[in-house]
Amino acid sequence: MITIYFDTGEALSLSMGSLVNSNLKGLELHRAIFDSLDISGADFTGSNLRNSSFDHSLMNRVVMSGVALMNATLIGAQIKEADLSSVLAIGADFSEADISMSNLKNADIYGASFIGANLCDTNLDVRRIDEAVFSDALYNDRTVWPKDFDPEKHGAVKV
Asked: What is the mean pLDDT of residues 102-116?
């Protein structure tokens, strides 16, 4: 049995032994706390993760395509090879996260923070990128940006 806690004091018990590679599709997880957990390979497709916290979590190969991540915190999380395509990450905080080799194509990142994040080999062909913060974020030649976007002008550092 796995229990997911919420910052409201509520809890949700799920009959599974681990969150790794788990099916969490379509769940109402608004304000859930996943801090420092291993949720690698979990599928959150269609879930509501607004205001949830994933700080310092292990999230490699997680599927969050089209998920609502508004105002979520993912500070210092390891999110390698993840599917974050079309995610609504408005106001989300990815500071110091390792998002390398992930796909954020068509994500809405208005007001999101990527301060100090690793964006190498990541598809960042996203919406409303001019309103996101990229100070000291790392990228390389294989990072995909929207046409006419200059990452260095927005504070990102090429490695």
From this structure: 98
User: What backbone torsions phi and psi does residue 32 show, to the nearest 5 degrees?
Assistant: -70, 150
Residue 19 DSSP symbol: S
Task: State the Cα–Cα distance between residues 101 and 104, nearest whole angstrom.
Answer: 10
pTM over 0.70: yes
Judge whether 15 and 35 are in contact, CB under 8 Å: no
CATH code at position 63:
2.160.20.80
Contact present, 11 and 32 (Cβ < 8 Å): no
Residue with tokens 């990815």: 94
Euclidean distance between CA atoms 151 and 158, whole angstroms: 9
The number of folded domains in the chain is 1
| Per-residue pLDDT tens digits for 3-23 | 999 999 999 999 999 999 999
Cβ neighbors of 42 (< 8 A, separation 6 or more) are: 19, 20, 21, 22, 23, 24, 59, 62, 63
Burial class of 147 by CB neighbour count within 10 A (0 to 12, 13 to 18, 19+) = exposed
Instruction: Please give the pLDDT value at position 24.
Output: 97
